[in-house]
């Protein structure tokens, strides 16, 4: 724990509030260790059970995590607004930032012409009564799903992929329920599951998606939901293959006790066929965001699923946020219908594939077996994440430590290729090769 912050309180509620205050003020930083239960109990003059209950409350709210002998630590991104501008250290000035995971802004479609056209066509302002999923958007979304073999008789829209997943989990699960997630997996999802008071069960991932033995073990552990990334898995770039999809569909068939969620966030940017699991279980949802192909500021995802699941998500929205802006829906529809935009997205996908595949190939020639089948990220195994991140930073590259994405998976770093140019690949591969195979310092001799 940071020496400058002293936890206070005489009840579990006041102790947990004190820790939260420290996190909010920035005195307790992500990764900071909290005192052992008995140590803090002695300092505060309370029973160990009181401190243990406070820590349990903090865990259930996703503020801290307990990892065996590593103790209780503040989560990398606890769900509380802080006074810090960012929870992760900013890249060192002068380094190339390959840690963000964002698409290349140079390859995003321009929104100005579409917004200008909407301004001329949108007509009079809409009221509350007309707020819903636009029929024309739903029709085009169904056509796009049909091409990929996703049944979409029932669908709704949400404020992005993570918003849709949050609504799905909240509608079906209760605090304490277990959720099977990919390991390594999307950091935002890991944080969301913790913030909802749910438990994560890691499922190992290879280049073809979640492994069958991993899913089988998770089912045996009693998980109530399974989240699978269809393509461009973050951080590994995995994509569910036809063979893996068939095996998982057989394994999941008829599991009425399981909510199956598929996340196809990359959509058109993933230039491999989609092999959906949709419908393998009675309760399922397929979520497709528009952020990666068309722009992160377009907070919209289309969610298809069984009738009851879609009704729960749409119904929960009606008593909360209400709906996704129909202006935003019209903008997305305009982008979908524009042949020039479709061509830009195809060019972006080709560019990402070239840079990602080029980096993976360059690493292979240096004896590094990296992963990056689809998407904008490359996952590079390393023996020590801290040493690798530091060495790469000193060489002029900022990458993301794998600890943000791992539960029990082996150490690695994540490299986002979207800001790279082809000429950057050899120097970056050299630096990654040295980080993955560091030279050992010879022992001192007499």
Structure description:
- With 446 residues, this protein is of the alpha/beta class.
- It contains 15 helices and 15 strands.
- It has helices at 12-25, 37-44, 48-60, 112-121, 135-147, 161-172, 187-195, 212-220, 242-252, 291-294, 307-318, 326-337, 339-365, 385-394, 425-436, and strands at residues 64-66, 72-74, 96-97, 155-158, 178-183, 199-206, 209-210, 225-229, 259-263, 283-289, 301-305, 377-381, 397-398, 400-401, 412-416.
- An eight-stranded mixed sheet has the order 4-11-10-9-8-5-6-7, with helices on both faces. The chain has a three-stranded antiparallel sheet with strand order 12-15-14, with helices on one face.
- Helix 9 (242-252) links the parallel strand 8 (225-229) and strand 9 (259-263).
- The longest helix is centred in the C-terminal third of the chain and has 27 residues, at 339-365.
What's the helix and strand layout?
Blueprint: H1 12-25, H2 37-44, H3 48-60, E1 64-66, E2 72-74, E3 96-97, H4 112-121, H5 135-147, E4 155-158, H6 161-172, E5 178-183, H7 187-195, E6 199-206, E7 209-210, H8 212-220, E8 225-229, H9 242-252, E9 259-263, E10 283-289, H10 291-294, E11 301-305, H11 307-318, H12 326-337, H13 339-365, E12 377-381, H14 385-394, E13 397-398, E14 400-401, E15 412-416, H15 425-436
Parallel strand pairs: 3-13, 5-6, 5-8, 8-9, 9-10
Antiparallel strand pairs: 1-2, 4-11, 6-7, 10-11, 12-15, 14-15
Helix pairs in contact: 1-3, 2-3, 6-7, 6-11, 13-15, 14-15
